[in-house]
Backbone:
């Protein structure tokens, strides 16, 4: 995607905030991103707001609060990939020549407990088939049967991400855990224990996109040396056939392997960015559960099919390794506010590419990938370069 | 109500399917799927338009009541909208038609299940449909049980 830069990013920490509304959190993230981009009122021509549970006109409520309306404001829902979808739309509009500057943000305040989703029909709920973590568990089970992944590998993903998360001030969980404690936590759905699952929570993130080389209308506070290039922002849905893909079908086919939605998105993103997985310096991927992260290694091409356990054993995915994954701590540390999570990844990777990531900085990072996947199915892959 | 299990041909004549069109109206009850006349692929639940090739007019077909276990887990917390007991088994069973079907399992101990295990269709109650006189008919859904030898 030639010609789109990220001019500013902002985030509201992910966690639980009883005293703040989803609008409050959106305002915090948006103000921070606009300030970084050197924008004040009227500095952007369109806004896309990602949210799954925010309700009617979530984006309008945030921008009304800060007196910035009149431009098109579009709410976008694409499950766990909502932020990636909003980013795709914003970048596409700039590339099409419609706008010079677009605000993309995501807000969420998730219900507590097992998430009730209007995705499932009443008969599925009544039958006990609306058990979202059970679908994750079935996928984990197959990964273990089809490759060398063991429960120890699942535990070690949690240990890695929680260790990374200690240094992320915007994460919900900032303490280390060891493998024994992970495996000692309650079994939610075999083989997944409680600490192997991310927590739905609250938060907001915002990104200002700008056409490369666009004039800034006298906003001289903007620092162009901090620009990060948006090399690709791709969204894909599923192809039918896989019973365990994130579209959560009631059936699939025995034969006819189909590419996963994440693979479809990654393949398109690599092509658009003119890179391959071997060029990546740092990755933030969907770790809804520990097995989901390992599966993402394969689906994004970080390793060959069946190679996730070996990649993990090699220590490649820790900060300091060959291809660090989730240096932010991942969703396992941050929690998952659906609308904000993909943009939260972008915020953290922009910090990485600017060299501002602090303790978990990946030295010399120049090419970064952000990945989300979830119900729909929706999968997004974003490639950032410096 | 405790979750019992019953073979699809063992009574339950007054049972109400949790979803219309889930089962055949034959005895024993079988799952109702469909088969695309153009590409030959099977679907479950039944649908008229083929999700693979978009052809219209898929034929309803009775699906096999026997299959092999492909993946499994246990649900330990009642999911939204479910009023029955926990824990319960949950998995994917492969049917000879080339379909993998997401299903409840009657066995909730994962250690007692194994890949490729022979499974058979059963009907299980998930609630009561209360009529005007205050009587109740069991609402049933489908599940798979380890095959009895």
Residues:
């Amino acid at each position: 995607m030639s010609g789109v830069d990220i001019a500013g990013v902002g985030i509201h920490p992910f966690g639980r905030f009883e005293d703040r509304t989803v609008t409050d959190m959106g305002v915090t993230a948006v103000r921070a991103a606009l300030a970084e981009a050197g924008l004040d009122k009227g500095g952007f021509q369109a806004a896309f707001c990602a949210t799954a549970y925010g309700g009617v006109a979530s984006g309008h409520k945030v921008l009304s609060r800060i007196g910035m309306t009149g431009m098109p404001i579009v709410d976008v829902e694409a499950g766990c990939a909502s932020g990636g979808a909003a980013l795709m739309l914003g970048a596409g509009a700039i590339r099409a020549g419609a706008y010079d500057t677009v605000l993309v943000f995501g807000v969420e305040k998730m219900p507590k407990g097992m998430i009730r989703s209007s995705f499932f029909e009443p008969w599925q709920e009544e039958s006990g088939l609306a058990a979202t973590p059970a679908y994750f568990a079935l996928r984990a089970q197959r990964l273990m049967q089809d490759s060398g992944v063991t429960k120890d590998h699942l535990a070690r993903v949690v240990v890695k991400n929680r260790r990374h998360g200690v240094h992320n001030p915007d994460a919900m969980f900032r303490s280390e855990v060891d493998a024994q404690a992970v495996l000692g936590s309650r079994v939610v759905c075999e083989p997944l224990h409680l600490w192997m699952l991310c927590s739905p929570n609250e938060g907001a993130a915002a990104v200002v996109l700008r056409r490369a080389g666009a004039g800034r209308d006298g906003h001289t506070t903007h620092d162009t040396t901090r620009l990060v290039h948006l090399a690709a922002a791709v969204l894909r849905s599923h192809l039918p056939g896989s019973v365990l893909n994130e579209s959560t079908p009631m059936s699939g086919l025995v034969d006819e392997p189909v590419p996963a939605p994440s693979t479809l998105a990654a393949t398109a993103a690599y092509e658009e960015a003119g890179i391959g997985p071997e060029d990546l310096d740092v990755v933030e991927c969907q770790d809804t559960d520990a097995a989901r992260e390992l599966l993402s290694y394969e689906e994004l091409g970080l390793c060959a099919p069946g190679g996730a356990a070996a990649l993990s054993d090699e220590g490649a995915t820790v900060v300091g390794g060959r291809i660090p994954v989730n240096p932010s701590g991942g969703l396992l540390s941050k929690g998952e506010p659906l609308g904000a999570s993909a943009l939260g990844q972008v915020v953290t990777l922009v910090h990485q590419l600017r060299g501002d990531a602090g303790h978990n900085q990946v030295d010399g990072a120049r090419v970064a990938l952000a990945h989300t996947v979830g119900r729909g199915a929706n999968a997004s892959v974003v490639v950032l370069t410096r | 109500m405790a979750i019992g299990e019953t073979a699809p041909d063992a009574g339950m004549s007054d049972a109400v399917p949790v979803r219309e069109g889930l089962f055949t109206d034959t005895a024993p009850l079988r799952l109702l799927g469909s088969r695309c006349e153009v590409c030959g692929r099977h679907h479950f639940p039944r649908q008229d338009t083929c999700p693979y090739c978009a052809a219209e007019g898929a034929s309803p077909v009775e699906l096999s009541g026997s299959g092999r276990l492909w993946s499994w887990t246990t649900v330990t917390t009642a999911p939204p909208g479910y009023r029955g007991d926990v824990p319960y088994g949950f998995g994917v069973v492969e049917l000879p038609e080339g379909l993998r079907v997401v299903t409840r399992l009657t066995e909730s101990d994962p250690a007692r299940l194994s890949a490729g295990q022979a499974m058979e269709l059963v009907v299980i109650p998930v609630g009561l449909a209360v009529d005007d006189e205050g009587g109740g008919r069991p609402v049933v859904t489908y599940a798979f049980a380890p095959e009895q030898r």
